[in-house]
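Note to self: the last two entries modelled the partners one at a time, which told us nothing about the interface. This time every component goes in together.
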Amino acid sequence: MNKWSRRAFIGAGTVAGGGFLLGVAGFTFAPSRHSLVSADAAAKGQLTTWITITPDNMIDILIPHCEMGQGASTALAMMAAEELEADWSLVRVQEAPAEDAYANGYIIRAMGGGYVPAMLGRGVDYGAYKAMEWIGLMVTGGSTSVRGTGEWGMRVAGAAAKEMLVAAAAKQWNVPASECVAKSSRITHAASGKSATYGELAPAAATESVPTSPTLKNPDTFTIRRTSAQRLDLPSKVDGSAVYAIDFTMPGMLYAALAIAPVQGGKLVAVDTAPADAMPGVKKVVKLDEAVAVVADSFWRARRALAALKPEFSDAGHGAVSTDSIFAAFDQALGPAPAVPKNAARTITADYRAPFLAHATMEPMVCTARVEGAGAETLAEVWAGVQDPLNARSVAAKALGTDVHNVRLTNFMLGGGFGRRLPFTFDYVDLGVRVAKAMSPIPVKTIWTRENDLQHDYYRGAALSRHAGALDANGTPLAAHSNYTGGGNDEAVFMPYKIAEMAAEGKKAPHAIREGQWRSVLNSQHGFFKESFIDEMAHAAGKDPFEFRRGLVTEQPRFKAALEKAASMSGWGTPLPPGEGRGIAVCDSFGTICAEVVHVAVSPEGQLKVLNVYAAIDCGDVINLDGATAQAEGGIIFALSAALLSEITIDKGQVVQTNFRDYPMIHIADAPKITTAFIRSDAPLGGLGEPPVPPLAPALCNAIFAATGVRVRELPIRKTSLKKA
Amino acid sequence: MRMFGVSSEHIMPITLTVNGKAHTLDVEPEMPLLWALRETIGLTGTKFGCGIAACGVCTVHLDGRPVRSCVLPISAADGKTVTTIEGLAPDGVLSKVQQAWIAHQVPQCGYCQSGMIMAVAALLAATPKPTDADIDAGLTNICRCGTFARVRAAIHDVANSTDGSAS
Ligand code: FES
Ligand code: FES
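The predicted structure of the combined assembly is written out below.
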């Protein structure tokens, strides 16, 4: 094995037979201009996006984000193809490899540094802020791909490539560039009747100088964006040919099954390896600091042998931690309900409780690695599914005590991400390379079982929120205050409502359970808290919950429009049969405003059926209409499953749930009809993967209240009896 | 062909036909079919999600019937015929279910979809014109990406296509 050089990859990426290769430099390197570089400069690493036009007229677009089902690769390719005036049917995409050259932290660095192009007028929001912490990483998360990479990279790359093709044609035909028209992967000069495909012009275009500030299209002339394009990654996902990390295989590869210290932070104290050593196919029992792994010639054999072991782990002093102890600490940290004005006609208080949640990506964590050499000379190849290949690569390098450039990481399509495969949560890569190191130089695939996955997640945090509100004699709200534990930020606690006194204060009650980012991050808890409470205030005021909200957002036109759209889609206000009800909620996250109305039926015995969800979404503009709709549907189902069923509990410092039997998911029978509408606004592009999540739980609980009079203040809903009060 | 030559007194050859091809495997009789398919035969389209028959991503057809291969001992497939997702489009022509999956743009991450498609193909073979209630009762696969609405629409599409056959 040689040292992995960046050049080796660049070489491989060059088109045989003289294609056209274009990259856009990151703003890191040129914060004051849209600097574009040719293939030469690309070799220096100043490259975030590549567009390649092959002699057979195909357009290859390299995407610096991973595909985890959110359709980002297709949407990003559409943004480049639009500016390029490409024939969409001739476009292919590929994910960029884990090389420094593709770091997309540049987007955020530029934003944080105050450089915001006109098309991105809005300031730094939470997604961007979070991503700032990950500077230098190649992150897919925070709903940033389309907003950042697309607007700042893909569009510019496409526009520049088009101008170079036009320039090449003009020169070849000796006509003014201004008379050449680019359309459907072809340049035409009407007066002379000359015409050539991009593929024919590519070699000449590659020698053109790169425009420093290409002109972007007026959105009114879009022909590819705003339409519904078939996702480019789908054909392989219906015939079993898509390769996920769990599918990767290589000759001589062994398999490992893991038992990890059940209490986070615990260590392996002792294990008698004899029972496993004797079993067929077992190659070695590997003892790690916090885990024991059985390596065998098949995963099933590894797992069977692991089950024969009785490893002892320490509990890191957390053996007494339980869900109850954590919530008791929350309660204490919150203290009495926040004070509200004394002169109010009516005051209300309420506590809301959100549980720990697991990501439970359908594909469990998997890492295959081959390690060679020792010490600083260690070389490694790693194959894993991650939302940030660069950070995953450094995790592997650190675990092996070698330089990052001695590690090559190959990423795969992800069998779900939802925030589980983000920076600082690559324990599966860390463990995987350490197991492989113990077997060096034999490649080892370490597969997590569902039990490993549910018990060793980076959980969505549990939280408790204590609210107090005040109304005057007319039912006009005077104050809405809250104290909360479990973390928060300005975006998560933001309420668009015009209320004289509003405050939300975070209280600290640290605990030993490790947490991570879960689809929509802190908005998932706070959306439930704040939109449940405003509903309670509406009912206390004796007002319709939609009209109450609408009256408070007169100065927030985007919120108003979203609320009105969702209400009208749902037939808000029209009569429903007894036992049915509608609930509404609106949340702003990742630059997108999403209002949802949920329509439920609750039987006299308290049996809940979610019939309809209506979502009105203002994410500025939509790239791939059908893809965007799918993201909304997926976010709603993801949130619904959690709201109805999901809870991770802790006992003796350990996660109690083990598999889908005790951490169940909804099935198709539980899935409501979902109707989605997108509102086009002049706001910059917002995220889509996450914003449909936060309003779902409150809209659902508000609907249950409308149907039954039962107010659900604790998730999941199954813990509350819905029998009519 | 013979694969996985490990000697052990527990091991006895298992013969089965997978996607039209005969295989003789030297594996423990209790090894689940899933792992024999994925690791011994090398067909990785069938996925692992829970190992306890609770999610359905490992669904394949055993003599035409849907089974969750993660809990089915390979001995139960001895002498039988197995169809996996790779066998659904034998000549590269997608089955009607697969075509409907593309038309409705069903998959997101796609990881559950091999099992989902196999479960649906079996459902349609048994009930060519399923009602929503039939679908609700017959399909218990988990999809974390939440593709259910499209799954339902695609099933109805296949059922309503002219000859009603799902193949
Ligand atoms: S892996 Fe077989 S049902 Fe989940
Ligand atoms: S498409 Fe991702 S789990 Fe179903």
